[in-house]
Specification:
Strand content: 25-35%
Largest sheet: 4 strands, antiparallel
Number of strands: 8
Structural class: alpha+beta
Radius of gyration: 17 Å
Mean pLDDT: 81
Order of helices and strands: HEEEEEEEEH
Strand order of the largest sheet: 1-2-3-4
Number of helices: 2
């Protein structure tokens, strides 16, 4: 029978190796058309570290794309995140869904829908999005495990 502590140590070692690779990983590009009832588009990047998920984005009008907001940054601590998942789509690249346990300092985010951050992914970034979701979930699981001890 496998000892749970040794298995967790193996997982942490794998994460450390993957973490070095994810630091070199490109930021995940997203574009969400449905912010503000379809009248604006949000474009940006997302990335994560050991304890936070970060977003850098800009909102523009979806008609002429002339009116653009200032560049905004959002940092979501892993303590506020319940799950991170990738939802496949037939016609686009899919979505990254970040389910939140708290809306503290996040309530005015344009890609927030019912306590879930929804990032639409272009088809060409689909593989990167899948890898992002897996690695972010691993980082989230390690964060939650460290909080237990």
């Amino acid at each position: 029978m496998v000892d749970i502590q040794s298995r967790l140590e193996e997982t942490k070692c794998i994460f450390q190796e993957d973490n070095n690779r994810t630091r070199k990983m490109k930021k995940l590009r997203f574009e969400t058309e449905d912010s503000n009832h379809g009248l604006s588009t949000t474009r940006g990047f997302s990335w994560f570290s050991e304890d936070v998920l970060m977003f850098e984005y800009q909102v523009s009008d979806s008609i002429f794309e002339i009116l653009k907001s200032e560049l905004k940054e959002l940092t979501v601590p892993f303590a506020q995140i319940e799950t991170i998942s990738f939802k496949n789509s037939w016609f686009s690249g899919g979505k990254i869904l970040v389910e939140l346990g708290s809306l503290k300092n996040i309530d005015k985010t344009p890609f927030l829908e019912d306590a879930v951050l929804c990032l639409e992914i272009e088809r060409k970034n689909k593989d990167t999005a899948k890898e992002f979701a897996v690695n972010a979930n691993l980082a989230l699981a390690n964060f939650k495990f460290d909080q237990l001890g």
